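Consider today's protein:

***
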Amino acid sequence: MKAIIIFYRGNDVPANVIEKLASVLAISGVEPLYCSTRDDEAVSDAVMQSSLTKISPSGKLARLLTEKVVDPSDQEAIDSAAVYITEKVLKHFTTQTMITMAITNCILGGDQEMRTAVKILATKKGVIKEPKLTKPILNVIKSIYTGLGQIS
């Protein structure tokens, strides 16, 4: 993970300045890009919390950067998508090939909820809490999403 963290003392940075910085980073090919502003209390809470727990330095940084950055509605969508795919497919199939076929068949059969769940898991950033959705399975889902984009 690479990050730019700016701490400063003074007045709030205007939103248009933050937007300009974000657009420069986006043009530079930085992806995914998360911008987060915090007041003194939020920064001190995050630093205090991370210093109280035994986490490696990189873990502290990752926690500080991701804490409260994920949009709650995105996380809710991820949770719902994970439950839907688990109930519909992962309860019945375990191999990547069978999972790929099952999800693809659902989508090609007109299951819009499956299509939406695949899109959410392939594009939204958040925490996957479902243990059956392992990294290889998520890669399968991302591949299906990419393939659907090429077909449509």
User: Anything to note?
Assistant: DSSP finds seven helices and no strands in the chain. Residues 72-151 form one domain. The two ends are 33 Å apart (CA to CA). Residues 52-58 have pLDDT under 50 and may be disordered.
